[in-house]
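re the bet — no i am not wrong, look at it urself. input seq straight from the record:
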Amino acid sequence: MARVAPAIPEETALLCEKCGYIVSGIPQDSLCPECAAPIVESLPEARRPPDWEREKAGFLSFWRTTAELIFVPGRFFRSMAPRGEMRRSAKFARWHVWLTSFLFGGAAYLHSMWAWPGLRKEQATWVDRPFWEMLVGSIMVTIFSIIAYVMLSVTTAIASRLTAWEAAYRGLRLPRRVVQRALHYHSAHYLPVGLLTFGTIWGYQLLIRKFPYIDQYAVRYLYVLCGEVIIAAGYLFVTYWKGMRNLMYANG
């Protein structure tokens, strides 16, 4: 027998944000009949736009919103209005994707210098190379950064489509516009991953310059990078799930 997808609640329906039960028409000072959560905690008035949207776009609001996302992601998405100005959230995402892409680009360039047999012999003095070599290096960093930007953007776009499709299949009120908005802000979690990657690779290059014999432990260095890939994937998934979980029953 073919599976019939559950009906998606109406946009105007008031849902219990803890369990998804429709509580429209129930007194607001009572409890959810399904999970006993206070209905007042699920009112649209409990949510608000992030600082980035409520204030003029600037340095302070950008980093305040970023800090809240990184350190208390659950609280951020639990209080975020599910619908808002997409242009502002998209701009927030572009800044973070570019920042992270440049970190990845610089990390990829430093790693390629270490991995390329013809460059390893000179890597201890790479900062003292002629101008044309520094120019070539800058171009390579730019190319790596653009590749990283495209990959992050495409991955995010695919994730938004798949998430919205899965939500519709399960009868969750999580349209693609809400998913995209959540993923725009989730992009702040790319930054710690980029900093960790760049810090590891740059730090290893500095150690080799000061203590060349450390290069004999290159396998351990590669193991560390592989471990960071696994940790980063887990971190991004957990923070992604915090966003989706706190928005799948959101009102407003």
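see?? Confidence is low (pLDDT under 50) at residues 119-125. told u. also The chain is about 60% helix and 0% strand. so pay up
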